[in-house]
Amino acid sequence: MTRQEKDLQINELKQLLQDNSVVYLADASGLNAEETTNLRRACYKKDVTVRVVKNTLLRRAMDSSEEADYSELYEVLTGQTALLLGNVGNVPAKLLKDFRKKHSMPILKAAYVEESCYLGDNQIDVLTNVKSKDELIADVVALLQSPMKNVVGALKSSGNTVSGLVKALQERG
User: Is 51 helix (H, G, I), strand (E, B) or coil?
Assistant: First the structure.
C-alpha cells in the first residue's frame, strides 16, 4: 500500500469518526465468510456501519480527530479489528449481543459512546442499557409533564374552578 493510499484511508476513517458519535471496536477474526456476511447484513438493517480496518491507520485517524479523545481505546488496537459505527449508543451493543446468541464472535474490544470509553467484552451488558441522548430527553420531558397532567386532571374533574382545584388537591394531600 502506497503512502498516498494510506493517507486516503486515514482521511476516510477520520470522516467516518466525525460523522458517527458511537464507535465500537470488536474482534471478528473467528467468523467465517457466511457469518461475516450475516453480521454485515444485521448491521445494515440497524443502520450501523461495519468495516474491518488496519489498527495503525485507525489510530492515526483517531489521533487526528479534533472532536473526540480516543486515546483510551489505543490499547485494544491489536489483532483484527472490526469497526462498528452508529449514532445511537446501545444499538451496536444489542446487535452484537443478539448475534452472539448463535455465534461465539465477535468479541467486544472497546466502545466510545457519549464521550465515555468502555473497555472489554464484559461491558456489553452495560452498553445495551445505555440510553441515547434522545431517550434521556424524552424521560426528562415525561417527568416534567407529570405534575402538569395532575393539575389539568384535577381541574377537569372539579368543573374547571379554582376552588374545585384547591379542594381536589386537599383531598389528595
Answer: strand
Tens digit of pLDDT for each residue in 36-60?
898 899 889 988 888 888 989 989 9
Domains in the chain: boundaries? 3-130, 134-172
The Cα 59–Cα 48 span in angstroms is 20
Distance CA 72, CA 122 (A): 16
Q: Contact at 8 Å (CB) between 130 and 21?
A: no
**Is a pLDDT exceeding 70 seen at residue 67?**
yes
Those residues whose C-beta lies under 8 Å from the C-beta of residue 85, and which sit 6 or more positions away, are 16, 17, 19, 20, 22, 23, 24, 48, 49, 50, 51
Three-state secondary-structure class, residue 56: helix
Distance CA 60, CA 147 (A): 51
CATH number of 3-130: 3.30.70.1730
